[in-house]
Amino acid sequence: MGTTTIRSSSLGYPRIGADREWKKALEAFWARKTSEVELLAQLETIRLNHLRTQRDKGIDLVPVGDFSLYDHVLDLAVQLGVVPERFGHTGGPVPLSVYFAIARGVQGATASEMTKWFNTNYHYIVPELEGAKPALLENRPLQAYREAKEKLSIEGKPVVLGLYTFLKLSKGYKAEQLDELVDQFLPAYLQLIRELDEEGVQWVQIDEPILSVSLPKAEMKRVARIYEEVRRAAPRVKILLQTYFEGVEHYEETVALPVDGIGLDFVHGYVRNKKHLEQFGFPADKVLGVGLIDGRNIWRSDLGAKLAFVNELAAQVPLDRQILQPSCSLLHVPVTTSREKELDPVLKQALAYADEKLEEIVLLVRALREGEAAVADELLVSREALEALEAHPGRVSAGVRASVAAADGSEPARSKPFAERYSAQLARWNLPVLPTTTIGSFPQTADVRQARRKWRSAEWTEEQYEAFVREQIGLWIERQEQIGLDVLVHGEFERTDMVEFFGEKLNGFAFTANGWVQSYGSRCVKPPVIYGDVEHVKAMTVAETAYAQSLTSQPVKGMLTGPITILNWSFVRDDLSREQVANQIALALREEVELLEKAGIGMIQVDEPALREGLPLKDEDGPGYLEWAVRAFKLATSSVGESTQIHTHMCYCEFHDMIDSIRALDADVISIETSRSHGEMIPALEREPYELGIGLGVYDIHSPRVPPVPEMVSIIDSALEVLDPALFWVNPDCGLKTRGVDETVASLTNMVEAAKVVRTRIAAGGGQPA
Where does 5-methyltetrahydropteroyltri-L-glutamate bind (predicted)? Predict the structure, then answer.
């Protein structure tokens, strides 16, 4: 094979570090254990190590500016001067104190809203554009470029979030104002790109994932106008317009944009992007960023198949105009498998984290440059690893396959309609109007984490650990009674994570020691790995829940994570459809639901915070997903008796666009995060009435601030303008695992008082305030 100038690239690297050193540095600073100077020095060391790793692995185009102190969307917002007035910023580069206040909140100023980054489990901070006066206050991509060049001699590729994606993901404006906003923001944005051009930067990666969602074609005119202005402002720098997470919506218009390269996702967008490429071709004056390696899952790639695909593409786009890269930023996968010392060797060999994915890309580039014979040994190792995974004894269970087949074609349903069930539940529990409860977890303090470490390291026996957990349950049952909550929870002190806990007790899951990924801010999660058929083995939650119920006469909710959330928050096998895996999980959870009911637990919460997260980016794919997702939930929950009350919980859910599916879950009570969205849920409920039990979160658990009673009363009052008080529950936004004890008790005490204020008014016949 002749030589080719095909190149390798990375679109972004995990921020957290192999040992989560990024997280630890941030949290030490927030706890006032380190100074701002010390924090910035620590983060510089981490950032340079990440760049060095990518360079040393042989990546040709190393991204710079993808590193963040919290979130990349927030980064662009503060660079462009988008700082909500309540944070008191008076001009100039945004100080760290204000930056973190926007993300986390401070006393007297609520944090900006946080929501999911497209259909991933990463959360971004939503920019608030109302009243914004755009101006370039700082050019962080330029700073990152200079740092890489001066300290590591790396000719970096600055990564910048696209202006159109930024505006579409923001809030505080009406749709008809979008053209005006483009006009307002373009000068500052163009200055950012122009400064990179003037610096002599060779390539800039501009991320526009919004081009992969369902957009009206008319919007492409705005996108074209932006890039025409970018081209005029920065005529020398090469622009790589990067899309990911799906096939682009308007392919012809996208590839016609005045840029030097287009990055396409050929993993999650394989079908659409390949079809478009075959149908319309690719411009001869552009390079193609081939998103070849899955940036969102952790399995090795079939490198033989990847090579064949690249060679097939070469018929339309010559190899010297291809750049091989991950399908998206590697932000969504762990850093390196080298720390996985205890994992089943067969599974470990089948995994590829960020570092291994970069090695796969470099290997493919080498094969294309030098011929496959040059990398024959490495290709053989990769192929044998995947074959060993397929032969793993835990991969297939005949019993699970038979159970799923038996459930196919059926439509699970409760024995009675909601109105009859709710009457039976009211009679059973005799709760007051506006019952108060929490979402499930209580603070995982240092003592709780230390106890778990001692147990996992065998320093404590099973009996010692169980005694500790029971002590914590007893303490928090007593606290909940003192606070005055109506429906209690056991606190989940035995659980590290709401998905990992269940995966550890089900067949078909494996667990990594260091498979951490960023969820939001410094919050990292370690998703389980679903490698085989999922099967219930024994009771998972009954002992702790039943013990908590034995300590109180008030109802205690059983707490389970729903099948779709377990699916969406795990790294899932890729040899079965996601629907098939969801049904396996649902049948396993149904066994646990029935065991809880048999143990006398009459309220069971099956959380689905990730239901909307899994919604496909294309509108035409949504109904099919929602149909099987709702069915999986009902498969898990519908076998209980009429007086057993099924609760569920959802986060970051745009209620109005899936109200029919939420209603179809047929949960007796649903709780939804709403406090950061500042009442936006209320108009949606006015348009789409909801006739089942519902709780709208009355305070934000992601912020350390303690909300005052009047603030929560106001949220309850707003909700009751469109909801029946007989069906309304009062609760926080989400679980309280990450909060401190004092702030949790203070916030819940205020929440209960707020419910009493409104309850008293209702009892007196006062209704809503004028």
Answer: 20-23, 116, 523-524, 569, 613
